[in-house]
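Why do we care about 3D structure at all? Because function follows from shape, and shape follows, mostly, from sequence. That is the central idea of this module. The next example makes it concrete: a single protein chain, its amino acid sequence, and then its structure expressed as tokens.
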Amino acid sequence: MKNLLQSANEKRAPLFDVTDAYRVVNGAADGFPGITIDRYGDRFQVQFFGPELLRRKNEIVDAIGGLFNPICVVVKERLSSAGRSLENAPMEVMVGSREDAIGVVHEGKAKFHVDLMDTINPGLFLDMRHVRLEVEERFCEMGDGLRFLNLFSYTCSFSVHARLGGAVVATNADISGKILDKGRENYALNGLDLRPGEFFRGNAIEYVHWAKKKGLRFDGIVLDPPSFARFKGFNFNVREHLMPLVAECAEILNPNGFFMVSSNYSEFSLNAFARDVLAAVSSVHSKAKTSWKKSQDVDFVGSGSTKDSCLVATLVEV
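And the structure:
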């Protein structure tokens, strides 16, 4: 088990100089069917999505301990006894303590707070790392005085990178005040001051409508919604509502700007998704073009082969 884990970790060598937060094991593609293992600095999260290796849980944790000497290992069982996926998964600290589950990781020039016991996701979506780094790079190259919009912002990691790249304002919209507070903490961790208009608690669609009325414009937009969300009686469904929202966002995107749209909804195909996003943006910006379409980064070996490891993402330039 330890040798198999070491082999999986070595595949991630290109990331070692970039970050200390990455996926060490991505299920069967790494020889561990039904589980993922994520590294957050000296902390590790093991998630069981299937029963294949559940009886070897202690052996897996021991292998992590022997190879990495972690200060904390948290195990989450994402499958019910009836075989259904659990969003409120049982969580167990198997190495260290509850307090040890909290820490800081680095990603390029950025730093982020994580808490492996807070929710299913510790505060940083690892599969969007390569896009976050590109957002920072684009703002570095685009010039001064530019504005960024981060919809469904979660803990504001995209905006941290945008501000580090030189964006004058990076606006975050999310329905959760608690999550936005974590975003503010990430700003502080990176030495970023809080600027007027950067935090909006509410529905992303609500914010776009408000921004249109106020005549606000942005030079970069990231739209990374959950597959389903509920807010004040409104049910957001990514299949039904995403492309109309893309078209509305395009109305507040400046010429020469960029727009990244992504989804973890497993029923989307990458080519069709990229085509539909481009069509929606082109309804506003006739010269829009697709810069790239891609899935998860190199640490997500076998991306797309299971429902718990899938991503479609595309970036459009106008």
